């Protein structure tokens, strides 16, 4: 079950939920707010989503990840609203029997999040201006 | 029939609104709604080629028929993660 959350992502809870006796690997990926982009100082990111469609898209990605990569579980949590520098805006957690599949699956799931979910990211710069990050047309 | 239109991200900012109601003739398709929106929001002109449109939460093509109470969403290029 994917989640859209307004506050900090509860990483410990995600990891605890992912642990299972038939898995020897849990991979956690966090996408965090970077303080620079194309030479500009970034103070914070702000995420917006078309919530019902975004949630459905993330759940679809979770299911596709399990199916395509033969991993045990995939969970995706995306934060919305303001995310300050160094804090996580997205988390992908994959549990699998072996690490190779877990790493591959987490990477694939994250790539899908960036291109298939109606979520938008705005950068707020040190100069006081802001801009939407160039993205991918939904298909 | 009446349909609701949701505007997101740069589409919302350019149009200066987050949502709108449209009254359309019975039998209208998505392309008809988009023609009305293009007319009412000239500021969106340069964005249209990049905008995907969903009807009731699913990506839709211009020939998709609309029904009373449909929810349209104007979705500019996505950049989550």
Structure notes:
The complex is a heterodimer of chains A (139) and B (81). By secondary structure, chain A is of the alpha+beta class. Chain A has a single domain, classed as Aldehyde Oxidoreductase, domain 3. In chain A, 32% of the residues lie in helices and 38% in strands. Chain A is built from 3 helices and 9 strands. In chain A, strands 3, 4, 6, 8 and 9 form a 5-stranded antiparallel β-sheet that branches. In chain A, strand 8 and strand 9 form a beta hairpin. With 81 residues, chain B is α+β, with helices and mostly antiparallel strands. Chain B has a single domain, classed as Roll (Ubiquitin-like (UB roll)). In chain B, 22% of the residues lie in helices and 27% in strands. Chain B has 2 helices and 5 strands; from the N terminus they run E-H-E-H-E-E-E. Chain B has helices at residues 9-15, 30-40; strands at 2-7, 19-23, 52-55, 58-59, 71-75. Chain B has a 5-stranded mixed β-sheet. At the A-B interface, strand 4, helix 2, helix 3 and strand 8 of A face strand 4 of B.
SSE blueprint:
The complex is a heterodimer of chains A (139) and B (81).
Chain A: E1 3-5, H1 11-18, E2 25-32, E3 36-37, E4 40-49, H2 51-69, E5 73-79, E6 81-84, E7 88-96, H3 99-116, E8 119-125, E9 130-132
Parallel strand pairs in A: 1-5
Antiparallel strand pairs in A: 2-7, 3-4, 4-6, 4-8, 5-7, 8-9
Helix pairs in contact in A: 2-3
Chain B: E1 2-7, H1 9-15, E2 19-23, H2 30-40, E3 52-55, E4 58-59, E5 71-75
Parallel strand pairs in B: 1-5
Antiparallel strand pairs in B: 1-2, 3-4, 3-5
């Amino acid at each position: 079950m994917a989640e859209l959350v307004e506050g900090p992502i509860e990483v410990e809870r995600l990891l605890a939920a992912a642990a299972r006796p038939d898995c020897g690997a849990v991979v956690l990926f966090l996408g965090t707010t970077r303080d620079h982009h194309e030479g500009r100082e970034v103070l914070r990111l702000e995420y917006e989503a078309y919530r019902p469609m975004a949630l459905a898209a993330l759940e679809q990605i979770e299911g596709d990840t399990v199916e395509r990569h033969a991993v045990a579980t995939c969970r995706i949590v995306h934060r919305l609203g303001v995310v300050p520098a160094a804090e996580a805006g997205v988390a992908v957690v994959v549990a699998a029997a072996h690490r190779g599949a877990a790493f591959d699956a987490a990477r694939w799931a994250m790539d899908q999040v960036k291109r298939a979910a109606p979520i938008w990211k705005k950068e707020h710069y040190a100069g006081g201006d802001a801009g939407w990050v160039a993205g991918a047309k939904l298909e | 029939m009446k349909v609701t239109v949701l505007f997101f991200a740069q589409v919302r900012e350019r149009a200066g609104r987050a949502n709108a109601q449209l009254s359309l003739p019975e039998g209208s398709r998505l392309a008809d709604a988009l023609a009305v929106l293009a007319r009412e929001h000239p500021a969106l002109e340069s964005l249209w080629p990049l905008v995907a449109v969903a009807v009731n939460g699913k990506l839709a093509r211009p020939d998709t028929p609309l029904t009373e109470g449909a929810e349209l969403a104007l979705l500019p290029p996505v950049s989550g993660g």
